[in-house]
Each structure stands twice: as C-alpha cells, then as structure tokens.
Amino acid sequence: MSQQPHPSPSALTAFAMGDRSDKGVVREHLATGCGTCLLAVKRFQEIAALEEQAKPRMDWVRPGRLPVSTFGRRDDSRLDLHYVTRIADLELDVLIRRRPHVGTLLVAGQLTIRRLAYEPAADVVVMLVDGNQEPVAGGRTDEFGEFEFEARIRSDYGLRITRGDTHHYVLVWQTDPVSV
Ligand SMILES: [Zn+2]
C-alpha cells in the first residue's frame, strides 16, 4: 500500500461540512479506507448536526413571568404561566394553561397596539413554533387581537409574531423542574 498523508484537520472539517473545494483530495483519501479520517469526518458531522439542532435561528425574546392567579378556575386545567411583553409596536399578553388530563398545552393570548391606547391588533400573523423555531400551528388574530393554540405538551414552545419583515420569537414554554 502506498503511504498517503492524512489531510489536515481543517480540510477534514471543511469536507465534513460539505465543502468540496479540495478537488476530491479528502474523498480519495477516505476511499483508501483510512478509518482515522473517516471517524474524524463522522465526528465533525455529528457535532455540526447537534449544534444545528441546539441553535435557534433567531434570539428568543424571554419575557418575565407574572404571578399567576388561580382564582375562579372551575375546570381541571392549570393556569401555569402569564407573560406580558413588548414586541415591536405591540404588547403581547399570553396565558399558558396546562391540561395534563389530555396532555395538551393551551396557549392563549392577545396582541394590542401600544400607541393606540392598547386597541386590539387584529389580523396579525401568529405562529406557534417548537424549540427549533419550526412552525407547529398558525393563524391570525381575531377582531379582539386574540389567538389560541392547543398542542401536545413537549419541551419548548414559542410564538412567532411577524411585524413588517421581522419575525419576533417569544419563548413561552420550557419544561423544567421548576415550572412543572
Ligand atoms: Zn487518514
């Protein structure tokens, strides 16, 4: 067998990320059956995939939680969280209710327009997104500026609110030992 030097770590990383500007050098080297470099490429790809999963595309808006009042609740669902936060020219008021008996999360909210004395913001596109900011459900606010989603309980949920060309991502639900 001919002695073939290993490609540099940076060449292996670039190859693992899909860069083919090395004109086949890494591919030919891997074709010789070099287990060391094959393993290195696989590791880089696994790390890249994990980082891609973990990294939101946009920064989350993380609104502060308000104290939750349970007064007057008649059904067996639990009012877990209440947020009020500013999104561009709007104010977002969100209630999160957990319905453990059916395994769902109710996300209900209202958007109002701050400069118009908190008049309802009707017809605003609101999406429920998962922890990777991928849309799960969506709709538009009604004449009262209200929206509501019900979805299976999972680790993270956010709301995507679009104003002009900008998406605002608001993190509204994270499963953690404190909130459960
Ligand atoms: Zn090698």
Features:
180 residues; alpha+beta; Immunoglobulin-like; 2 domains; five-stranded mixed β-sheet; five-stranded antiparallel β-sheet; 3 helices; binds zinc ion
As laid out across the biggest beta sheet, the strand order is: 1-10-9-6-7
| Fraction of helical residues | 10-25%
- Shape estimate: elongated
Give a short account of the largest sheet: 5 strands, mixed
CATH class value of the largest domain: Mainly Beta
* Number of E-type strands: 10
Instruction: Label the CATH architecture of the largest domain.
Output: Sandwich
Overall pLDDT score? 85
Number of domains: 2
Radius of gyration: 24 Å
Percentage of residues in DSSP E strands: 35-45%
Distance linking N and C termini: 61 Å
Give the uncertain stretches in residue-range form.
none
- The structure class reads alpha+beta
What sequence of helices (H) and strands (E) makes up the elements? HHHEEEEEEEEEE
The fold-level CATH name of the largest domain is: Immunoglobulin-like
Number of helices: 3
Distinct small-molecule ligands in the complex? zinc ion
Tell me the quaternary state. Answer: single chain
| Fourth CATH level, the homologous superfamily of the largest domain | Immunoglobulins
